[in-house]
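Model: You mentioned two targets. I'll fold them one after the other.
Researcher: Yes, keep them separate.
Model: Target one:
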Amino acid sequence: MRWPNGYVCKKCSRTKYWLTQEKIIHCSVCGYETAVTRGTIFHKTRKPLLLWFHIMWWVVAQKTGAIANNLKDFMGFGSYETAWVWLHKLRRAMVRPLIDKLSGEIEVDETFIGGIETGNGSQGRGAETKVLVVVAVECKGKQIGRVRF
């Protein structure tokens, strides 16, 4: 959270401000301007944040992955390009850019998680109700190192 105890100016560290009609926070002491959404994928968006959150829910709820054509149909966007741009903004936001890559000896394993699919006898990759989970762990002797999934 950007300001858990209320607004604090980035330049002068003061807490006095006023809000413009355009929802810009203006520091009363030094005049620095910022917005709650500045530095996020929501900055300068003309769409309501509730719509963004609705699309985020849809993206993470897709078991087979989100694709722009399906998002276009789901949201009723006028073009594929609009859906593609929204989807890629969300994908960029989900990447952790400062995460260190694992190094040294690494152990990787996979498993399928989900209920038993009755009727067709499918197991493993053939079962539609199961989700593939892959985990990578740094080996540090008898200790477990950093984990990525």
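Model: Target two:
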Amino acid sequence: MPGYQKHKAHKVFPNLISQNFSAPDANQRWCTDFTYLFLKDGSVRYNCAILELHDRNIISSITDKEITSDLAIRTLKKVLQSQSKLKGELILHSDQGSQYTSHAFTSYCESVGVAQIMSKAGYPYDNAPMERYYNTLKNELIYQHEYKK
């Protein structure tokens, strides 16, 4: 994939929800992932989004030229700043991408009290809500238009 660099995982977390993608209340379980967006001129943009599992709404989304742990941190910061004080434990589910296993991202999550859990490596079904969101976004919006830089 363009712009992708493999890095050794700093920290990997267990998958504690085992495909139970529900949450009785808001701000209990969120999912996150990245996707590639190919532009008409051949360039690539990377989108990082966070989905609220309670109502299946996207609550944060940032697109950038690079796929980095900084993009993941900025996406999480954006939603945390927009929420009123969180009550109880917030679980953030992701895949085992290097952006989410990096020292920078895991340290940031720890510093703001966000508990990380992760899919099994190479098993997208464990992050199905995000995979479905990106499939819908691409098929119903992105592929219907031509985007430039």
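Researcher: Noted. Anything on target two?
Model: Residues 29-142 form a domain with the Nucleotidyltransferase; domain 5 fold (CATH 3.30.420.10).
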